[in-house]
Amino acid sequence: MELTFDRRERFRTYMKAFNPTAPARAVIQAGLVLEDLHHSLYSNLAGRADLEPGSQQLVVGGIGSGKTTELLLAEQWLRNQTKALCLYIDVTSETDLAGLNSGALLASFGVHLANAARELENPPTDKTKENREMLRDFAYGKTVRYWVDEDAPEPDFDDYDPEPPTGYYVTNRLPGKLNPPLPALQRDIADIRAPLNYFLGLIRQQHEDVVVIFDGLDRLITTEKFLSVVHQDFRALRTLAVSLLATAPVSIYGAWQAVSERFDRVQPLPVIPAGAENDGFLRSVLARRGALKLMDPPEADGICRYSGGVLRDLIALARDAAEEAYIAGSDRIRLDDVKKVTAQLGEAYLRGLGPTQIKSLKDLEKTKAFNLQDSTNMELLVTRRVLEYSPTDFRVHPALLPLLTQTEKADA
Amino acid sequence: MPEFSSRPAFEIARRIELRGTNAWLVVIAGGDWNPGELVREVRLVVDVPARSVSAMPFDLGALRNALRTPTDDVVIVTGLDQLTGDNWTVLDVNRSALERTGAVILSLSLATLGPLNAWAPNLRSFIGGSIFILTDDGSVMSDDERRLRLEELALAYGLTDEEVIRRASEKNLPAEPDFAEWLILLGRGDLV
Amino acid sequence: MSLADDAHSRARDLDRLIEDQIPKIRLSSSNELLSELRAYMDRQDRTLGVGNNVISQLKRVSDPSGLAQINLGVPSLDRTSSAFVLRSGSRLTFGISVRDEGRNAALIAYRFQVQFPEWHSPNYLRFDLIPRQHEVPLREARCHLHPGARDMRIPIPVLSPLEVLDRIFFVIEPQIRR
Questions:
Q1: Of A222, A258, B90, B142, which residue is most buried, by most CB within 10 angstroms?
Q2: Domains identified in chain B and CATH numbers
Q3: Separation in Å, CA of B160 to nearest CA in chain C
Q4: How far is C24 from chain A (nearest CA, A)?
Q5: How many CB atoms lie within 10 A of CB C108?
Q6: ipTM above 0.85 for this complex
Q7: pTM above 0.90?
């Protein structure tokens, strides 16, 4: 019998490789990422960003599809292969995304740019300090003190009037772009161009180009919100000849044509179907992390199939199956473990679905047609009950599907 | 409707111990549930500090600070049943701000899974299928187990339960740990 | 007085000292004590066990008078009943009686038995804390160790349950090698 200690170490090692919530950067550094999973898309994105200054490319993918990983690989590619300065900005850790509005992305870019320029001038010149302060005020706000006059609306200033003007000072905090929530202050985006240009000038003495990667904008969920937030900022970045890669919400599938016209490239990061022709890819993701040390091919196939090709679900199912096996005292993952965890995942997706949504899912399964203009359908897509395999191929999440059949039988 | 897996607090703690860092899971507990038991089991099994934090009154900044101070212990978040759709959206959109190395256990009711799915799909993706209904740990001896143990004691010592009680009342029982156990199993710990 | 009388007298004095130690051992309430023991056994199982199902082996029962019993497995020398199995093949069972007093508990009695593999001599070790003084403390001290021979009992200081387990896992088990 295998000793408990050895068994536990085997499972612990496996769990470290199969952590679906591990930061993407750590996963890449640990060598666990299959870089050609999306046919090295990251190098195409990065290459274009480098070759076409001012270009703007969106990466559109559902939750858990691996967008952040692809963007970090792009950043890595740019650092290793080009002379561009690449700034990766996770907008969600910079500010409250719920209150994000026009100017905030530029503010974030400006702060990162100014920081990147630090090592170029030591000590910084007065002009650099001045521009840095302008960016800081734009981003984080500033305190101003000003005089409020209490005299009549049209005071009569008599030079010989011995009485001093009456009034008082007021100290006000002017909010910055990175403090939520704010009304759109469109006019001052133009104001911030000068310090941005200043730092870009400094940076371009050392680097050929500047590429900014904005991650997290897909959390803005609706296409309308996404476009309203990014519109002015992205336009400003284009005029500054800064190339841009950004994530965008999956709801863009419902406005693909309109959005595509505004960007140089709108790149879908679709879910990878687990059919025979693609089994290799998903299985490779598992194998890369050492899955076959704890499971056999039938179990791996089950996990690939029921993940629907959603990368986070794939990793999570592989992790959960191992956990079940360990708790049950088994030395390896069994088919029963896979069945148990896929049922749990399906149950998680099922919760909260109303009759209208269930009908939409059943209709999709029956007819394969999926109207993206329907708000119920869009919600199902955003919440991953429906997965996009291409802009025209939508399917019910395979972990959820068997449970829909059960509700059908229950209704009958 | 099929239910989620029912697991005792001890096993939830074992799962967290196995998972290591960045673990997210949901426990479904009743309305009057006290997180103290789960906090205790996590501390004992995982051997890291554990605490519970309420999400109410809702304040993203306060919750973020609570989760990051420190960032490597295990935190059980309560009060989530009272979150509005907007609250969930704020949490979801700012999910990165809540990330930490220590495990996060969200405690909520079954009914709250609907709003979680609808308003916080990013958070739900983090949780995946890691949703467990908290159940009793089965450590209390069942009547059958108690009866079986009494039979074993009777066979080992050649005495009946009545004889044991009588002799205990007469202070005539051997000073053996087994007899203390015997009397407790009979509900006569007063005679120990 | 004869030598035997002196021995009995000294044994009675020693037993009083042992008796005095018991109230100084404050335990967590029986509910929490079970959690502590379960976590301890689970962690020991990870390195020294063979995959025991600790959660099913540990049981508790409470009595209306406030006493509680915590058992691990079934103490028997026939090698078939439920026990925590160590890597050497030794089998561990225990029974602990406590009196719940609010958030704490007082120790009443215990029996920890380690049954060694068949090739080992002695056959077993047993740590006993008996619920009251024996009539003949020289023969049976309030807290004693059975070194595998039925009527041989050696007085030991009162150890808490975790202290007994520490001796079993860190001192005794490592010695059990063929």
A1: B90
A2: 5-135 (3.40.50.300), 143-191 (no CATH)
A3: 19
A4: 36
A5: 23
A6: yes
A7: no
